């Protein structure tokens, strides 16, 4: 699951394209299937979104929650791909983007009435 935060006036107009860019990177780097898009957008009022100096109102935070298992080099490739594609396709400067990957053990995920460690029919690999 991916959660994206930003100032609503800047985030709302680009949500659909941003979702496409993020999912495209997830597909190309992690091998995620087309139908595994789980994105949540949290548009905030300017007064509810504090961020570091040197950033613009385009500042966007992307939190990627995933089951543990991806190699550090795979995670770094995902982050770098996101920076590149967000700049190329949405003109979001890397200085205005923050990306965090939060890993949880498979037994800490619940979906379709089972835990992640019980799922044996995933259409993608976790250990890449």
Automatic annotation (TrEMBL):
Pfam families the UniProt entry points to: Tautomerase_2 (PF14552)
Q: Which domain of life is it from?
A: Bacteria
Q: What is this protein called?
A: Tautomerase family protein
Q: Which residues form the signal peptide?
A: none
């Amino acid at each position: 699951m991916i959660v994206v935060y930003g100032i609503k006036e800047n985030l709302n107009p680009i949500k659909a394209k941003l979702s496409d860019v993020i999912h495209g990177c997830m597909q190309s780097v992690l091998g995620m299937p087309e139908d595994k898009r789980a994105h949540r957008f949290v548009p905030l009022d300017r007064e509810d979104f504090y961020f570091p100096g040197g950033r613009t109102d385009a500042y966007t935070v992307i939190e990627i929650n995933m089951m543990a298992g991806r190699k550090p080099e795979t995670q770094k490739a995902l982050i770098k791909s996101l920076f590149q594609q967000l700049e190329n396709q949405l003109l979001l400067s890397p200085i205005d983007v923050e990306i965090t990957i939060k890993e949880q053990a498979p037994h800490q995920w619940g979906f379709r009435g089972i835990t992640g460690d019980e799922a044996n029919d995933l259409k993608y690999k976790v250990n890449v």
